[in-house]
Amino acid sequence: MDILTLKNVSKIYGELKALDNINLKVEKGEWLAIMGPSGSGKTTMMNIIGCMDKPSLGEVILDGTDISKVSQKDLTIIRRDKIGLVFQQFHLVNYLTALENVMMSQYYHSMPDEEEAMEALEAVGLKDRAKHLPNQLSGGEQQRVCIARALINHPALLLADEPTGNLDEKNEYVVMDIFEKLHNAGSTIIVVTHDPEVGDEAERMVTLEHGRIAGEEKKKRQRPVIKDGDDKFKGFV
Amino acid sequence: MKKRSMYWRMVTASLARRRSRMITALLAIAMGATILSGLVTIYYDIPRQLGKEFRSYGANMIVIPTDSEHKITDEQFEEIKAGIPDGKLVGLAPYIYQNAKINEQPYIVAGTDLEGARKNSPYWLIHGEWPSQPRQVLLGNEIAKAIDLKPGEKFTLSTPKNKNESTQTDFIVAGTVTTGGKEEELIFMSLEDIKSIIGDKGLDVVEASVEAEQAELSQIVENLKQKDAALTPQMVKRVTASQDVVLTKLQSLVWIVTVIVLGIMMICVSTTMMAVVTERRKEIGLKKALGASNESVVSDFLGEGMMLGFAGGLLGSGMGYFFALQVGMSVFARRIHFLPAMIPVTVIVSIIITMIACSIPVSKTVDIEPALVLRGE
């Protein structure tokens, strides 16, 4: 079953076609990597998939809803209900603790639940850092808080923009390990990256060039059986 | 946890953990609230302060008999006294005037309640003492100069007894009085002394110093007129009108300054909040990316503004009283009364002003796009 379908999607800024007739389907539970150099249209595509922008042409169907035709207000609601965002620069609110950052996402979505937020932090291995402010956390820890925040509202799609771009190798491994566990638990993940190693972790890799899909590589990797530790993400899928 | 609890948790965390920026806004609000609270306290205290100040410029009400052939009786004097509300009477001085001679020179004697006259006219400059014993007088400075009498010296006062005879009475000058007015041509003595010489013929005039504004004094005068037609009470307009003019001007000045200060406070808060919104563009973009509506983001900032207004108002209402106290002591040399109502008034006005000041900067948050945070700009 497809969770996301892009049909003949174009995004045009004046004379420039940032995206040019893109067709793409993402299955539920799939892990997709969107790759490409700067200016290839990755960010534009991410904005459209993340319900932060609408295409100039074409249809974008997310979990059964054509988001290319809805109002900005509805787009906000769909983004809130369906998308979990992970950013390269983490974007944690600096005056809120790790726990409060996760609860803030619940607050804008529905009702804050401290216990559930704590469970999300526990799932990413940060239960004991819950009361720390972002500036008291390492880059890797901040990214894990960002992932916990993205997961807390059980999104249909986890959208990550260069999730390891600001991390060292050790933390990159930790974050990719979390993604793998999430994937194993059934999460649909789209990672936008220029890092081939991060792209290699995905089931499928789509390469963009000049706003068009220049290549697609599907790996034969089967989704592994849930391993020990993967089940802790089950509750957020 | 309820949504409201989380809302206030975020608002208080933003204020408490971003102290340096918020202190600037808080100080701007507190300073404005201080001036507001202080000036309004002074505004309401000015009539009382000025009333007391003006009472030192002499009586502001006189009562004379309607018929010049008659005198004011002791019963009527009690009526006048009773007609002035409790706590408003500063001084009451009944007068009996009598022609007299010293060294064959004609003068006028004013028999009065010396304590009442003293309270009515604290501005009189006395050389020597006020009379404290029988047969002592307070001599007008012009008379003292004319007949070369000094405090402590004796003189004989001649008052007419009948057509051809006169009564000679010895007096001691307790002091001389300088006022720059007609009082310097009078000889002041106690009512008892004058009555012992000429007998009790009734009072010629009653002078009163009443702590009241023109409207209130006018009402007292009107009531007295209606109560006893044989009495003609009058306001001393020279004093009451001056008091009202000064009062109106001072109160207008206070209002103008208050409005200007509130305007400056709004500009300061607005500028600070504009900087805060600019600084926090990414945070606003993030909140929107997480699904916050424009209304939610605006509400977050207005919540912060409200808390700042509350804290600044509370701080300002306390400091405002001390400001008013200092002004009261230096300008009027009197304590300003504390008005408990100023605390809620200052807090509410501070919140309203802060919210208005926040409205323009906060409305800018609506224009911030959530995609901003993805671009990493």
UniProtKB/TrEMBL annotation, chain A:
GO cellular component, one term: membrane protein complex
Any one Pfam family match given in the protein's UniProt record, by short name: ABC_tran
Gene Ontology MF annotations: ATP binding; ATP hydrolysis activity; transmembrane transporter activity
Region (Disordered): 216-237
Keyword Nucleotide-binding carried by entry: yes
Keyword vocabulary terms for this entry: ATP-binding, Nucleotide-binding, Transport
Gene3D superfamilies xref list: P-loop containing nucleotide triphosphate hydrolases
Claim: ATP-binding is one of the keywords in the record: yes
Highest taxon listed in the record's lineage: Bacteria
Domain spans labelled ABC transporter: 4-235
Protein name: ABC transporter domain-containing protein
Lineage: Bacteria, Bacillati, Bacillota, Clostridia, Lachnospirales
From TrEMBL, chain B:
Domain MacB-like periplasmic core span(s) in chain numbering: 24-200
Transmembrane portions of the chain: 253-277, 298-324, 336-358
Superkingdom, natural source: Bacteria
Keyword entries, A-Z: Cell membrane, Membrane, Transmembrane, Transmembrane helix
GO cellular-component term (any): plasma membrane
Keyword Transferase: no
Main subcellular location of this protein, as a coarse class: membrane
Location(s) in or outside the cell: Cell membrane
Mode of membrane association: Multi-pass membrane protein
Pfam families per the UniProt record, alphabetical: FtsX (PF02687), MacB_PCD (PF12704)
Domain ABC3 transporter permease C-terminal stretches: 256-370
Record's keyword annotation contains Mitochondrion: no
GO molecular function: transmembrane transporter activity
Similarity-based family: Belongs to the ABC-4 integral membrane protein family.
Descriptive protein name: ABC3 transporter permease protein domain-containing protein
Organism taxonomic ancestry: Bacteria, Bacillati, Bacillota, Clostridia, Lachnospirales
